[in-house]
Design brief:
With 466 residues, the chain is α+β, with helices and mostly antiparallel strands. The chain folds into two domains: 310 residues, Aminopeptidase (3-Layer(aba) Sandwich); 137 residues, Aminopeptidase i, Domain 2 (Roll). Helix content is 29%, strand content 23%. Strands 1-2-12-3-13-19-15-17 form an eight-stranded mixed β-sheet, with helices on both faces. Helix 2 crosses helix 12 and helix 7 crosses helix 12. The longest helix has 20 residues. The site of one manganese (II) ion (MN) has 3 residues, from loops.
Length: 466
């Protein structure tokens, strides 16, 4: 009997939750870490705000854009919407760098370019949703507006309304159940609320002159003009994002979980930021934290993973290291690099366990997830890391005491999803997906485990330390 128990222990893979495996001291560290994380979530509800938070934290630790400076800590932002941090290592760059890449955009509603209109004595704003949302999530909740507008004279205006307790908020009015039988209830969930019906309630007082046309719209336009000097045309050259107005909160009697907007993928962004900032000395290999935009809409555009930003970063690093940034040297550096595609995974939801194949699914409270492949329909569009690289990361995490689980997203034929992994893997670097498991992913209030978040930080730190 004793021998059977020993065999079982040695041979079988039996994951245990983090709570059973962390020491009291480590638990305490994890709980402290979650406080900083929640503040980051609250301060970083858009990609621009995430960049500002990351840059502010990095500058405090001596990261600088100044290439003349002999500092080994480098920082480069791209159009205020994506950013790279690097700590120069001892080995030549052509031997490869270590990259943790996350994304800082999140599903949301964007205002249309010509958004303001009035109807039935109300002022409303038209939206176009960004990324994979479930539309019913966005009605009947308090919403905040975070915008950047370029005015007629070229000046830039940043405004946030709905985050301060004294601010008003916005909302999308849902239909009362008494009257929704035909219009909503009998339809398929994804068709029940049309994209064009996600209009934001923005006012209800008319302009005082009864002779005026569109008095409700005019009243809001006058208000915007008095307060910010805006005219309607300014909205044409603007990016105005509508996000949940609530803050990140602890969840549960035991306060073990975190609920908040945009944890996909700001959890990995925050963990990789803290991991890189924690590197005190020059690492053996140059370490890069890359924070990208546009992942939720396919990684296109000049701030997404498909742009050449990483090559520009490498080229700067070569100059900083006193080496010539030839295109061949940059190709060599990228080809010999190792990377973590730091993105979230979907944990088993107690109400919908059937969409997962549980032996291979992510669980809340079981540590950071490694995901060998993403994709859908037979690994289509997946990066699919090599066994050798999975083995290397597995050994590293085990040696450094990182608690991790191997997970795939859903049953084989259930659906699936992609990450940034494949866009960087094209350079030839070793690449694997690695990140935190979430419940309610892509909802306005995603849920993570405090201990999983901390293990994600530990994983990225271990990766940088090599
Ligand atoms: Mn993601
Ligand atoms: Mn996502």
């Amino acid at each position: 009997m004793k021998k059977t128990k020993e065999l079982e222990k040695t041979l079988k893979l039996t994951p245990k939750p983090v709570w059973d495996r962390l020491s009291a001291g480590e638990r305490k560290k994890a709980l402290t870490f979650s406080k900083g994380y929640k503040s980051f979530l609250d301060a970083s509800k858009t990609e621009r705000e995430a960049v500002a938070s990351i840059v502010a934290a990095a500058k405090k630790k001596g990261f600088t854009e100044a290439m003349t400076d002999a500092s080994p800590r480098y920082l480069l932002t791209n159009r205020e919407k994506n950013v790279a941090l690097a700590v120069l290592g001892e080995r030549p760059l052509t031997e490869g760098v270590r990259i943790v890449v996350s994304h800082i955009d999140a599903p949301r509603l964007d205002l249309k370019q010509n958004p303001i209109y009035e109807d039935v004595e109300l002022t409303l704003l038209r939206t176009h949703y960004y990324g994979g949302i479930k539309k019913y999530h966005w009605v009947a909740i308090p919403l905040a507006i975070h915008g950047t507008l370029i005015k007629k004279d070229g000046t830039k205006l940043s405004l946030t309304i709905g985050e301060d307790d004294k601010d008003p908020v916005f909302t999308i009015c849902d239909l009362l159940p008494h009257l929704s039988h035909k219009v909503q209830d009998s339809k398929r969930l994804r068709e029940a609320i049309a994209g064009e019906k996600l209009t934001i309630l923005a006012g209800s007082i008319p302009f005082p002159d009864e002779e005026a046309k569109e008095r409700f719209k005019l009243n809001i336009l006058e208000l915007l003009n008095k307060r910010w000097g805006l005219i309607e045309e300014d909205f044409l050259s603007a990016e105005i994002e509508v996000v949940p107005a609530f803050k990140a909160r602890d969840i549960g009697f035991d306060e073990s979980l975190i609920g908040g907007y945009g944890q996909d993928d700001r959890v990995c962004a925050y963990c990789s930021l803290q991991a890189l900032l924690s590197l005190e000395e020059r690492p053996t290999q140059t370490s890069i934290a890359l924070f990208l935009d546009k992942e939720e809409i396919g990684s296109d555009g000049n701030t997404g993973a498909k742009s050449t930003f990483l090559e520009i970063v490498l080229s700067d690093l070569f100059r900083l290291a006193g080496q010539s940034p030839t295109s061949d040297a940059i190709r060599q550096a990228l080809f010999h690099s190792k990377a973590l595609s730091a993105d979230v995974n979907g944990a088993i939801n107690p109400n919908y366990q059937d969409v997962h194949e549980k032996q291979n699914a992510a669980r809340i409270g079981y540590g950071v997830c490694l995901t060998k492949f993403t994709g859908s329909g037979g690994k289509y569009n997946a990066n699919d890391a090599t066994a050798e690289y999975v083995g290397e990361i597995r050994r590293l995490f085990n040696e450094k005491g990182v608690i991790w689980q191997m997970a795939e997203l859903g049953k084989v034929d259930e659906g699936g999803g992609g990450t940034i992994a494949k866009y960087l893997a094209k350079y030839g670097m070793d690449m694997i997906d690695c990140g935190t498991a979430l419940l309610g992913m892509h909802s306005p209030f995603e849920v993570s485990s405090k201990l999983d978040v901390y293990e994600t930080f530990k994983a990225f730190k271990a990766f940088y330390e090599g």
